[in-house]
Amino acid sequence: MNTHPAIQKLIDDISVENILTLLELEDFSPVFDYADRINHFHHGKYIDIRAIVEFSNYCRRKCKYCGLNATNSSAKRYRMTEEEVIQTAIHARKAGYLTAVLQSGEDAYFTVEKLGFIVKEIKKQVDMFITLSCGEKSFEELAYLKDCGADRYLLKHETADTSLYGNLHPCGTLAARTQCLRDIKKLGYDAGSGFMIGLPTQTLHTIAEDLFLLYDLQCDMAGIGPFIPHPETELRDCSAGNTELTKKAVAIARILLPKANLPATTSLGVLDTKQKNNIFSCGANVIMRKVTPPEYVQLYDIYPTAIKVNNIEEERQELETTIRSLGKIPR
Ligand code: SAH
């Protein structure tokens, strides 16, 4: 089969300009098809399912798009106990999940000693991959957590535009964020980055830079999802990100990082369930499911969703059925 000339040009010379050319294509279907073929070559028909445990919504940071930001005084804060986190992950393993993603705001209560203890206990009791997603950490802290058995670390770069990053993150810099990602990679974790589509002032050129950064970091995982305005944030009146553009970005990420794990992000599903399923036919190979206990799940309010978690086993079954109905194999 002939490869579209713009795709071939990108493969021969990976650059921001060549990524931008693809994003601007009027007929994007050759890119979707190509991404689907590469995905199939590397991942077959498998869709890998991850369980996500949102264990604390305390956060010291003030990211302007996020409902957990420290200035949101209307957020009701919660912390799961260490034992609750451990038991939830074990429960998810027994329901069939092979990976637990432990995610939180940047909560100083959860020191690396506490996080390390949680990782070690889960690993002692069940055979399960552990992904951490708890914000920026020092090289030493990341090294310690790796020694405790953490397999993967997820820290989205959010936007590769230095000044937009600065505007949205009063508590951090893009340089510190990417350094942390490079540390994660250097320590031998599976490194996960990602970014949002539709942030205010973002252009197609910014998205091309975002995609190039994923390639430059040689990410093992990349979550690309639409921005969703949260009513208790400064960005409440901005519009949500475009789901078609999100799909295009995922397809290009698949071309740049053929073997990477690319999730159909939760935020995509919030805006458009059809697009979320559809994305498995143009590059995505992973899906995450919340297994956060019901008393906390509504409080982990990064952006507005109607997602409920009732029964871990039933939800897993339902998800497997949906995946099979798409002609894919849940794993
Ligand atoms: N504290 C952790 C986890 C952050 S929350 C960390 O810093 O990595 C997980 C992800 O949710 C963020 O990385 C961000 O990309 C996404 N997110 C936050 N607010 C959002 C919003 N309003 N719309 C869409 N995605 C959002």
From TrEMBL:
Coiled coil: none annotated. Residues 45-268 form the Radical SAM core domain. (3R)-3-methyl-D-ornithine binds at residues 133, 267. It holds the Pfam family Radical_SAM. GO terms for biological process: sulfur compound biosynthetic process; water-soluble vitamin biosynthetic process. S-adenosyl-L-methionine binds at residues 158, 177. NCBIfam families: rSAM_HydE. This is Iron-only hydrogenase maturation rSAM protein HydE. It comes from Filifactor alocis (strain ATCC 35896 / CCUG 47790 / D40 B5) (Fusobacterium alocis). The gene is hydE.
